[in-house]
Design brief:
Rossmann fold, two-stranded antiparallel sheet
């Protein structure tokens, strides 16, 4: 087995892909071999010494394909260091930090299957043009008008890079 870390993700609008790529870059800048791939492109975990898995949040949960990835690979992931992250617009709401404990519960189904060595939560970005469903675009549009959310990129790149840098010792 190589000493390559897999950073894998599930996304709807590309925001989580951006977070995964930033995590991969930080790990590789620290001298680690890294591959960044969407979960639906991962067919074998054997080549990897550790895994970082992340998902966008939709309806207060990891995306279904992300939960399926964990379920399908549960045995293998139990044998490797695993870190998880989520990307959630709730953390971008005014006073979003107070929702962090609530958002942390969104990953409970994953925690019931695997034991991550580290977990992180990041705010996402909102671009109504990228929201795939008309119904969701309408709901987000109304929420923007009511001041619940603001359009734009709310990802905290410093926090993302800092968490990724902290993983090096945890994923060995």
């Amino acid at each position: 087995m190589s000493q390559t870390i897999l950073v894998t993700y599930a996304t709807r609008t590309g925001t989580t892909r951006g977070v995964a790529e930033a995590i991969g870059k930080t790990l590789s800048d620290n001298g680690t071999a890294v591959e960044v791939k969407p979960m639906n492109a991962v067919t074998d975990l054997t080549p990897y010494s550790a895994v970082v898995a992340g998902s966008a949040i939709q309806a207060s949960a990891w995306l279904p394909e992300a939960v399926d990835f964990i379920r399908t690979n549960q045995r293998t992931l139990a044998q490797k260091p695993l870190a998880t992250f989520l990307v959630c617009m709730t953390l971008a709401m005014p006073g979003g930090e107070k929702y962090r404990p609530f958002v942390s519960d969104f990953i409970k189904p994953v925690r019931s299957m695997v034991r991550p060595v580290s977990e992180a939560q990041f705010a996402g970005s909102l671009d109504l043009k990228k929201v795939p469903s008309l119904g969701d675009r309408i709901k987000f549009g109304i929420s923007i008008l009511l001041g619940v959310w603001k359009q734009g990129d709310h990802r905290d790149w410093t926090a993302i890079h800092s968490w990724a840098a902290s993983l090096k010792s945890k994923l060995n």
